[in-house]
Specification:
By secondary structure, this protein is mainly beta. Helix content is about 10%, strand content about 40%.
């Protein structure tokens, strides 16, 4: 068990409250267009104008040839297309830039790998096939040297050297590892496993079929468990046995004392006291009257999917995926602000200057910035097909895209 002092320290997601870029680099935001296999690069604040685009599947033909020659790989590839891909291949899930801004490291679910794309040439620098048959969410260490990736079907998280692609460690998780978060000091890595979200056994009676869902916290020096959190026990103790224990996106307070998290099927989020190891508050957000109560219609069990916190910790930005809005919530009172209409918003990231929340509208092929101070929409920018993850990164000053575009 981690001590209370350690638990209360350094648990801010790496990248929150972005630092000034190094000389010769420009801070930007990358938007992963999952069904298209591209990443749009936009300004990280202001007008959020598009700067360039990166093809993250330059080796697509080679990967497809390998898959179609292997019946087992082909089965999983088609399963991803028909399941979480909603009839499409999932070509980019998550992405981070290297510290020098020369490459973009990308997890590609349908190809079950992580690749490094050279931002000057557009070519593949290195490729790491994950264990199993699907790659998912990633996280980058605070110093930018390591990247962690969830291997969904093998219940494993791989940690890679971001420059070379060499594996420096790995650890086991619950079923279907999903979100990863490094502590701000880099000492711990949190992983949230969500269980089986691709089946239609979504009625509460069938919850036992969803698998082993838990939070695994490991020491990044040894990759051994420092703590395992069964959120089912904490939710039951809080009096919410009705809620799923599949922890989706999370946000930590700047001091690391509180974690806010979304769960499958729920239109809202919960507050978890890290040192006390207990759920302390719940916030149910408004339901959209047009949203079906049929849980099988929620994309991968996600009613709400996407959270970010303002740098000073006073506001939460919440993507109400199936209810089709985004709202800014006051963290002290849990009162929500205006419901800003959005088309299947799927992620929420803090802008480079910390003033706005940037969401991906996956059903409208755009990203939208919402002001943390007022909760009002600032601007929308068109991007590629089915944007999901949005991350702050860096490119060389003057960069407008790879040479091969």
């Amino acid at each position: 068990m981690l001590g209370a002092v350690v638990l209360a320290a350094g648990l801010v997601p790496a990248g929150a409250g972005a630092a000034a870029p190094a000389p010769g680099l420009r801070q930007v935001m990358f938007v992963g267009n999952n069904w298209e296999g591209t990443a749009d690069v936009i300004a990280s604040s202001g007008d959020f104008a598009r700067i360039g685009r990166v093809n993250v599947v330059p080796d697509r033909d080679r990967r497809l040839a390998e898959i179609y020659l292997n019946p087992v790989k082909l089965g999983f590839f088609l399963g991803i297309r028909l399941g979480p891909g909603e009839g499409h291949d999932q070509l980019i899930d998550d992405m981070y830039t290297t510290p020098d801004g020369s490459a973009l490291v990308v997890s590609r679910p349908s190809f079950a790998d992580v690749v490094s794309i050279d931002l000057a040439t557009g070519g593949v620098r290195w490729r790491f096939p994950v264990s199993g048959f699907r790659a998912d969410h990633m996280a980058v260490s605070p110093d930018g040297t390591r990247v962690a990736v969830s291997a969904s079907t093998s219940n494993t998280v791989h940690v890679l050297d971001i420059v070379t692609g060499r594996e420096v460690g790995s650890f086991g998780t619950g079923d279907k590892p999903h979100e990863n978060v490094f502590s701000a000091d880099g000492r711990y890595l949190w992983n949230m496993s969500i269980g089986e979200v691709f089946t239609d056994l979504d009625d509460p009676f069938w919850d036992f079929t969803k698998g082993d869902r838990k939070i695994t916290v490991v020491d990044t020096a040894t990759f051994r468990d420092a703590r395992v959190i069964d959120m089912r026990q904490r939710l039951d103790a809080f009096g919410r046995a009705d809620l799923s224990d599949a922890v989706r996106p999370v946000s930590f307070t700047p001091d690391g004392s509180k974690m806010y998290f979304q769960v499958s099927f729920f239109n809202g989020f919960l507050e978890y006291d890290v040192a006390a190891d207990r759920v302390t508050r719940v916030k149910e957000l408004p339901k959209n009257p047009a949203t079906s109560d049929d849980r099988t219609t929620y994309v991968n069990d996600s009613r709400h999917h996407g959270m970010s916190m303002s740098p000073n910790g006073d506001k939460l930005c919440v993507a109400g995926t199936m209810d089709e809005y985004v709202t800014v919530v006051d963290r002290a009172t849990l009162a929500e602000g205006p419901l800003v209409p959005a088309a299947k918003p799927y992620w929420a990231t803090v802008s480079g200057d910390g003033r706005a929340c940037v969401i991906s509208e996956s059903a409208a092929d755009r990203v939208t910035a919402v002001d943390f101070a007022t909760g009002r929409k600032l601007v929308s920018v068109p991007v590629g097909d089915h944007p999901q993850r949005v991350r702050v990164g860096h490119v060389p000053t003057g960069w407008t895209g790879p040479a091969n575009r």
